[in-house]
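User: Structure tokens for both sequences below?

Assistant:
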Amino acid sequence: MPRSAASRKTSNTATATVTGTADTRQRILAAAKDEFARYGIAGARVDRLAKQARTSKERVYAYFSSKEALYRHIAEHETAVLVEATRMDPADLPGYAGILFDHFTAHPDHYRLITWGRLELAADDAAESETVSPLPATITGKVEQLRDAQRAGLIDPVWDPVDVLGLINQMATTWAGQPEIGAAAAELAADTSVEARRAALVTAVERLFPRPR
């Protein structure tokens, strides 16, 4: 075989190997995201997600040292996706609440995935470290945004920015975090539509933190 043909064959084989490895890793991540959202960290099974990813349990562990490491990788990525999809305009907090509502309504698995980590990893993190973990930069950044908006006269300074952020986040995830409330609304509300729930949320936040006029 001519040298040039042999070189091309070797190059094509290496490219195919890299592509196949990347595809396998992406299938593992997709399957793991679904597995963790459904069952949490403790309930997730590596053999089950490996089957869904059309690979082996051993291959999963070749990429990620443990089930917890795999969850942390996915949660970090999903948190970045959440931050990008739910940017906050401190001059329009009712709009921000609506954005949060829309995201978690469209992606209920996203809320479950993050919540499992809060429930299952918090105790482990506290046990492993005697120091308080640093606050996520996104929370710190949003609190500073709110504080700056207060200085600019856009938000009533009587509120602590931490309370503003906490209240809006909690209100916006009411239906994602309490599916029984959503079920009750679907049967008992005068208007059972999702749009009515969103409108109620936006109205409530508008009354608490009105847009500047």
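Moving on to the next sequence.
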Amino acid sequence: MRDYCIRPAGPQDLDGARAVMLDTVYRDFGTGYVPRWHGDIIDPDAAYLVPARHTLLVALDGADGEVVATAALDSRGPAHPPNPRHVAERYPCGTTAQLRRVYVRREHRRRGLARRLVAELLAFAAADGGYRSVYLHTDPAVEGAEGFWRSLGTVVHDEREEVTGSQGIVHFDVPLGALRPASPSPSTTSVPSGSPAPSVTAAAAPPSSSRPRPPGR
């Protein structure tokens, strides 16, 4: 049985986290690095470590200490455009915790990592005290993504139902108490493998004006 350590990322983890994120946008999405959409990947320190209300979590393989999964949260609500106006108005900046970059390397998927990481993000948001809602959007074309998020939250807008201009993105609201972490707050947590979880992508649909779409838009 393989063990994993989940913890808030430190400076020593950023190269590994960046590698997971870049591998995902290149290999899984096939879009590669797009500067206007992936600035947080290149500089995760400024995006997630410096702001007090933001966080970046990493999962480390207990066998060799390699970063094998990431998950992030920030206080930026979805912008309009490209998101629907009513979604942007429902989730304003400052009081919205947006989940981002929930990425797990292929060889470490279906071991419960995504669910554990999201549980820690929700605990972080709850402890902040200023977040009133948790939002994310995902591309249902990503294997396992839609089912995973439907198991945790509620669809607030499905762009596949739009008559025109749809890019197929699904927008979700996730209750702050949807999951309970293994520890009281995002801290070093040993996570044994064996609990099944799908590959998921939060706020990280692959970019393009048709398909795919910009991550973290």
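User: Anything stand out in the second?

Assistant: The chain has a mean pLDDT of 86.
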